[in-house]
Amino acid sequence: MMTTDFTEDTIAAISTPPGEGGVGIVRLSGVHAVEIAARLFVSSKGKDIRKIRQRVFHGHVHDGDGNILDEVLLHIMRAPHSYTAEDVVEINAHGGMAPLRAILEAALAHGARLAQPGEFTRRAFVNGRMDLSRAEAVIDLVQAQTRAALHAANTVAGGALSRALYELRDLLADALAHVEAAVDFPEEDLPELVNEALLERLRNAHKRMTDLIRNADAGILYREGVSLAIVGKPNVGKSSLFNALLRDARAIVSAQPGTTRDRLEETITLEGIPARLIDTAGMRSAADEVEAIGVERAKNAAQQAGMILFVVDASAPFSQEDVALAEYLARLAVPVTLVRNKMDLMDGMDKMDAGDILAVKWAAACEVSAITGAGLHELEHTLAALLLGDASRTAEEPMLSRLHQKDSIRRAATALERLFDNIDASPEFLAVDLREALQAVGEITGETTPEDVLDRIFASFCIGK
Length: 465
Ligand code: GDP
What we know:
- The protein is an alpha/beta fold.
- The chain has 15 helices and 14 strands.
- α6 packs antiparallel against α7.
- Bound molecules: guanosine-5'-diphosphate.
- The site of guanosine-5'-diphosphate (GDP) has 16 residues, from α8.
C-alpha cells in the first residue's frame, strides 16, 4: 500500500512516449501538484506560480543543487478544470529521455509519487470526471489502429455510450421503485404491478440492450482486430495473395520491431477492421523434419486465427492433398473462406470441377487472381461482412468495445427476459431481476464495478495516461 505522508496525494509520470521528440511532458496531479512544481521550477520573470492565477509560465527546472535541468513551459490546470479534476501541472520540456527523467526524479524528490499505469485516468474516473466506459474509450482512442476504430472510440469518449447507459439505468431504477413500492401491499390489494406502459418501457430497454450486444462484436473487432491465416498447399499462390492484399488494403505500419522483408505477418485494414494477415507455410504431408515444423506452425496459426483463407489453385485439378486439407480445415472451429486463386488462367476455359471441395460448406467462397488483382475487393468485402455479421457497420451508434461490457449487458438482458417470463410473479421476484439488471448496467459505467475489475482495467493503461 501507499505511504501516508504527503506523497500519497500527488502523482507524477512522464506522459509522452519514450524516445526522442520535439516536446515531452511530465505530468503531476494532486493537491500538492502546484507546490511541488514551485519547488523545482524557477520562472524566468520571477513569478511565484503558487500565487499568480496564470496558466502558463516560462522558466527552468532545477535540481536540488541549483543546476538547470531543462528550459520548460509550465502549464497549470486548477481543480476541477483538469483531466483528473485535481490540480494538474504539465511540464513541457524537451522531448528526450534524459531531461524528462531528470525532471520526473526532481518531482519525486520533492514529494510526488510515481503514478501507476492508468492512474491519471483512474483519478478522473474516481473524481467523477468521466465514467468507466469513457475512461476505457480513452485507451481505445490511444490504441486505435484504424480510422473506424478511432471514430468508434471518439463516439464513446464523447459520452454517447454513457448517455445510453444512464438512460437504461434510470429506466430500470424507475421500474424497481415501482415494484418495490408494491412489496408492502397485502396480497389481496396488490395493484397491477407491471402495467402496460411500464412493460413497454422495459421492452424498449431490452431492445436497446440487444442492439448493444449485437454491435459489440463490431466494437470489439474494430478495437482488437482479427487474425487471418492464409493456408493452402504449396504453389497455390498464398504468398502472392498475401502481397496482393497488402498492396490493396493499404498495410498499417507494423508495430513489431525487427520485421524484415521475409516477414510472414502484416496488419492491413479491412474496411476499418485491423486484420493481421498471416502467411503460413504450405500445408501438405511433410517430407522432412524442417518442413514438418513449418506445417505444424501453419496448423497452429490456422487453429488460432479468427478466420482462415483456404487458397486453392483454380486452374489445376484438385488433388487428394487438397481434399485432405479441406477436410482438416472444415473440422476446425474457425470459419473458413475458400479462395480460388489464379482465375486469370481460366479465361475462356471451363471452370474446373471443384467436386469434393465445393461440397464442403465454407463460410464464403471467392474467386481471385493474386497476379492481376481481380476479385480482391470482393474478397475483402466478403471477409469484412463475414466478420461483422449483422453488427452495425457504421460507428455512428455508440458501441461496446470490450468483452466484459458485452458480458454485463447480456446479463442485464437475461435478467429482463426472466422478468418478462414471470411477469405475474410476486413483487419480490421482479425486484430481484430488476436489481440484477441495474447492477449489470452499472458495471459498465463503473457505478457497481468491483474494485479488482477496476484494477485490471486500469492496469492495461500505460504509465502517464
Ligand atoms: P505459395 O507457395 O502458395 O505461397 O505460392 P506463391 O505465391 O509462391 O505462388 C506460386 C506460383 O504461382 C508463383 O509462380 C506465382 O507467380 C504464381 N501465382 C500466384 N498467384 C497467381 C495468380 O493469381 N495467377 C497466376 N497466373 N499465377 C499466380
